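Propose amino acids for all 314 sites.
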C-alpha cells in the first residue's frame, strides 16, 4: 500500500479535474497491459499477449511486467484447445460485448462452490446494483474536455449501467480467466469464498470484493469510483489490474465514437493530465475551483487504507 500513498502525497495540491467518468476514460485511453506466455509454439496471439518460445510441452501464463510478479499463474499441456482457453472464453466474450454496448462495468461473480454462500452474496450484489442503477448519476461532461478529445462521445451517449456475469471457479473453459482474476491480488487464492470483480475499461479489474466483503458499502464504493469524474488520468496511479481479453479496444471505441470526431493520442493532451485520484465527485468543479481541497486527499487516503479491510471476510 506504500506506493499508491506515495504518489497521492506527491501529487496533492496540483490536481486538475477531468469530467469524464472513470469507466469511459479507461475504455478510451488506458491501454491494456500484455500478459506473458511461454509455449513451444503458438499461432499469432492477440496484442495483449507477449509470446516467448519455451522448450517444455506446456503453456505457462504470467502477469504483465507491470504487476512485478514473475510467477506462473496458470499452466496447461500445450494443445490447440488449451491455447483457445488461454486466449478467450465465453465469460470474457460476454463481458467485452457488454462493455462494447456502453455498460459502465460488468461485475464478474466468481462462485465459491458453496451454494448457500454463493446465493447470499449474489443476491446482495444483484439487489445493490439494481438500486444503484436507479439512484446514481453520471457527472456532467465539461465542453472543454470534449473539445480536448478526452472523450469521443457526447454526454448523452454515456450509459450508467451495471450487470453481472457468473463464473464457476472450476469451469475448464474459464481456467485461464479465473487464474487471472485470482492473481489480481496476492492473497485471493487463499480464500474459498464468493468473489465479485468489477471489470471496466479495456478489461481492467478494479479489485475483489470477497465473501462478507460483498456488501452495500463496498459495492457502493466501487460503483462511485467507476462513474465518478476521472481525476487521475494516469492508469498506473489508479487501483486495478488488466485482464487479457481478445478484443480490439481501439476499434470498439472508434465504433462508439461520434462520427467524424478523431480521438487523439493520450500524449497529445499530456498537459491536461492531473496526478491524483478523486473518489465520489458527482459533478466536475468549475474552472475557478479545479484544485483539490485537503478534504479530497483525506477521502482518497481513507479509500486506499480501508479498501483491503472492507473487501475481505470479517
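Proposal:
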Amino acid at each position: 500500500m506504500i506506493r499508491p500513498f506515495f504518489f497521492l502525497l506527491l501529487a496533492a495540491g496540483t490536481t486538475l479535474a477531468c469530467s469524464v467518468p472513470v469507466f469511459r476514460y479507461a475504455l478510451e485511453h488506458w491501454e491494456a497491459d500484455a500478459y506473458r506466455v511461454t509455449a513451444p509454439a503458438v499461432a499469432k496471439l492477440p496484442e495483449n499477449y507477449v509470446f516467448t518460445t519455451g522448450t517444455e510441452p506446456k503453456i505457462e501464463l504470467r502477469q504483465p511486467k507491470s504487476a512485478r510478479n514473475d510467477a506462473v499463474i496458470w499452466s496447461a499441456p500445450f494443445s490447440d484447445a488449451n491455447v483457445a482457453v488461454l486466449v478467450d472464453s465465453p465469460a470474457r466474450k460476454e463481458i467485452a460485448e457488454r462493455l462494447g454496448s456502453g455498460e459502465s462495468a460488468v461485475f464478474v461473480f466468481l462462485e465459491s462452490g458453496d451454494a448457500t454462500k454463493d446465493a447470499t452474496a449474489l443476491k446482495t450484489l444483484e439487489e445493490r446494483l439494481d438500486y444503484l442503477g436507479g439512484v446514481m448519476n453520471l457527472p456532467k461532461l465539461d465542453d472543454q474536455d470534449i473539445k480536448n478529445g478526452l472523450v469521443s462521445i457526447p454526454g448523452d451517449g454515456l450509459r450508467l449501467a451495471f450487470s453481472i456475469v457468473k463464473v464457476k471457479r472450476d469451469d475448464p473453459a474459464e481456467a485461464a480467466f479465473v487464474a487471472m482474476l485470482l492473481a489480481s491480488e496476492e492473497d485471493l487464492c487463499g480464500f474459498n469464498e464468493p468473489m465479485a470483480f468489477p471489470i471496466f475499461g479495456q478489461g481492467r479489474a478494479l479489485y475483489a470484493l470477497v465473501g462478507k466483503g460483498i456488501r452495500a458499502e463496498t459495492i457502493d464504493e466501487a460503483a462511485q469510483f467507476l462513474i465518478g469524474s476521472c481525476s487521475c488520468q494516469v492508469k498506473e496511479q489508479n487501483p486495478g489490474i488488466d485482464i487479457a481479453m481478445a478484443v480490439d479496444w481501439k476499434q470498439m471505441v472508434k465504433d462508439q465514437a461520434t462520427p467524424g470526431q478523431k480521438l487523439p493520442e493520450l500524449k497529445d493532451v499530456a498537459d491536461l493530465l492531473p496526478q491524483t485520484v478523486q473518489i465520489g465527485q458527482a459533478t466536475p468543479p468549475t474552472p475557478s475551483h479545479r484544485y483539490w481541497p485537503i478534504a479530497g486527499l483525506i477521502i482518497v487516503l481513507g479509500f486506499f487504507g480501508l479498501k483491503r479491510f472492507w473487501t475481505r471476510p470479517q
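The first strand starts at residue 35 and ends at 39. Confidence is low (pLDDT under 50) at residues 1-15, 259-301.
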